């Protein structure tokens, strides 16, 4: 690992914001970062080695931070969640059941079969992708009250389930590790809530802001990395550590100053580094050697749209169903975990990313058509 490599990763990561500049296209920033990584990695010019130990470790730090930010963006405190919780939860369960059946059907056609993984991928939603689209809408959205809890539940449950289904032979130790990490994140939530209720958190915030100590940022990073260390030692995933801690912070309420600091660290450096590293790790040439993987990617993307769109039968607008299928965090995490544990077939990682891109493209089309409608 050299400063030249670090500078290159930071430079090519700028392709993400450049690609996302046209607002009408609604392309997530991470897509450009993944593409940049693909160009300089295994598939492209091979300028960087994603297996290099230091680069890989920095990418894992970025992975934990990205998942923390994703967890903190789940709208737990949004009062609109409570209004449609019952209907939203029922729809999330229905989507999960449909995805389970379809995941089994898809797995019978591909080798090696991963029915649990395919089910989780198709059932997932990405609040980090969907919420900005919802918030930017200038028109009233019918069915929004039940839509928000649906995507929040799907996002959280699928991230928890992913480490358990991606490598079934290791499901038991992964489950025990996941329970340990979730218990630790829950304990952190209660401790932080106690500090919040007693006013200690507010006093720390005031002193930190007045004297520029960045105490909240330091303490949160200590807790995040501590949870990540626990996850590694208990055979869980840093993904779950980051997301669980993010949910704990979201449940209490993240101070605006802390949110800006974490945004700067994650989106300014370690997040782009992680996505560039992930893109560099993908070997898209394997898709050429295994055309069936292209079909798998399309099937996963269209399958996700189908199972979410099927909620039209429960009265949900079809546009919201397609929007709920938009996914990014779970597929990206699946590829990361799959590459680490070597459980994915050649070309399967790129196929999973292709499936995610299909859902994002569909969500972009829906959001653009909604934006054209008169308010």
UniProtKB/TrEMBL annotation:
<dbReference type="InterPro" id="IPR038770">
    <property type="entry name" value="Na+/solute_symporter_sf"/>
</dbReference>
<feature type="domain" description="Cation/H+ exchanger transmembrane">
    <location>
        <begin position="14"/>
        <end position="361"/>
    </location>
</feature>
<feature type="transmembrane region" description="Helical">
    <location>
        <begin position="146"/>
        <end position="166"/>
    </location>
</feature>
<dbReference type="InterPro" id="IPR006153">
    <property type="entry name" value="Cation/H_exchanger_TM"/>
</dbReference>
<dbReference type="GO" id="GO:1902600">
    <property type="term" value="P:proton transmembrane transport"/>
</dbReference>
<feature type="transmembrane region" description="Helical">
    <location>
        <begin position="292"/>
        <end position="311"/>
    </location>
</feature>
<dbReference type="GO" id="GO:0016020">
    <property type="term" value="C:membrane"/>
</dbReference>
<feature type="transmembrane region" description="Helical">
    <location>
        <begin position="88"/>
        <end position="110"/>
    </location>
</feature>
<feature type="transmembrane region" description="Helical">
    <location>
        <begin position="318"/>
        <end position="337"/>
    </location>
</feature>
<comment type="similarity">
    <text>Belongs to the monovalent cation:proton antiporter 2 (CPA2) transporter (TC 2.A.37) family.</text>
</comment>
<dbReference type="Pfam" id="PF00999">
    <property type="entry name" value="Na_H_Exchanger"/>
</dbReference>
<keyword id="KW-0472">Membrane</keyword>
<feature type="transmembrane region" description="Helical">
    <location>
        <begin position="57"/>
        <end position="76"/>
    </location>
</feature>
<keyword id="KW-1133">Transmembrane helix</keyword>
<feature type="transmembrane region" description="Helical">
    <location>
        <begin position="262"/>
        <end position="280"/>
    </location>
</feature>
<keyword id="KW-0050">Antiport</keyword>
<feature type="transmembrane region" description="Helical">
    <location>
        <begin position="213"/>
        <end position="232"/>
    </location>
</feature>
<keyword id="KW-0813">Transport</keyword>
<feature type="transmembrane region" description="Helical">
    <location>
        <begin position="172"/>
        <end position="192"/>
    </location>
</feature>
<feature type="transmembrane region" description="Helical">
    <location>
        <begin position="238"/>
        <end position="255"/>
    </location>
</feature>
<keyword id="KW-0812">Transmembrane</keyword>
<feature type="transmembrane region" description="Helical">
    <location>
        <begin position="349"/>
        <end position="366"/>
    </location>
</feature>
<dbReference type="GO" id="GO:0015297">
    <property type="term" value="F:antiporter activity"/>
</dbReference>
<protein>
    <recommendedName>
        <fullName>Cation/H+ exchanger transmembrane domain-containing protein</fullName>
    </recommendedName>
</protein>
<keyword id="KW-0406">Ion transport</keyword>
<feature type="transmembrane region" description="Helical">
    <location>
        <begin position="116"/>
        <end position="134"/>
    </location>
</feature>
């Amino acid at each position: 690992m050299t400063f030249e490599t670090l500078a290159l990763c930071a430079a090519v990561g700028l392709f993400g914001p450049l690609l996302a500049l046209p607002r009408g296209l609604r392309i997530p920033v991470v897509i450009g970062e993944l593409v940049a990584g693909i160009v300089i990695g295994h598939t492209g010019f091979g300028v960087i080695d994603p297996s290099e130990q230091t680069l890989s470790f920095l990418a894992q730090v970025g992975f934990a931070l990205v998942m923390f930010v994703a967890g903190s963006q789940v709208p737990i405190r949004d009062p609109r969640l409570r209004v449609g919780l019952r209907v939203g939860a029922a729809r999330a369960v229905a989507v999960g059941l449909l995805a389970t059946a379809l995941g089994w059907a898809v797995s019978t056609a591909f080798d090696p079969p991963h029915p649990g993984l395919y089910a989780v991928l198709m059932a997932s939603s990405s609040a980090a992708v969907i919420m900005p689209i919802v918030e930017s809408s200038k028109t009233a959205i019918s069915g929004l009250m039940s839509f928000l809890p649906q995507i929040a539940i799907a996002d959280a449950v699928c991230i928890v389930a992913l480490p358990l289904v991606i490598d079934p032979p290791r499901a038991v130790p992964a489950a025990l590790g996941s329970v340990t990490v979730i218990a630790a994140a829950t304990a952190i939530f209660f401790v932080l809530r106690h500090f919040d209720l007693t006013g200690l958190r507010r006093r720390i915030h005031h002193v930190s802001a007045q004297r520029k100590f960045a105490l909240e940022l330091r303490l949160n990073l200590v807790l995040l990395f501590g949870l990540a260390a626990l996850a590694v030692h208990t055979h869980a995933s840093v993904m779950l550590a980051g997301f669980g801690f993010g949910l704990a912070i979201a449940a209490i309420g993240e101070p605006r100053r802390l949110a800006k600091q974490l945004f700067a660290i994650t989106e300014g450096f370690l997040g782009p580094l992680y996505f560039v590293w992930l893109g560099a790790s993908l070997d898209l040439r394997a898709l050429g050697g295994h055309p069936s993987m292209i079909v798998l990617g399309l099937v996963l993307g269209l399958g996700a749209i189908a199972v979410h769109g099927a909620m039209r039968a429960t009265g949900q607008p079809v546009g919201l169903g397609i929007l709920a299928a938009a996914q990014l965090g779970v597929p990206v995490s699946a590829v990361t975990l799959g590459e680490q544990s070597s459980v994915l077939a050649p070309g399967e990682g790129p196929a999973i990313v292709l499936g995610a891109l299909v859902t994002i493209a569909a969500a972009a089309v829906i959001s653009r058509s909604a934006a054209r409608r008169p308010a």
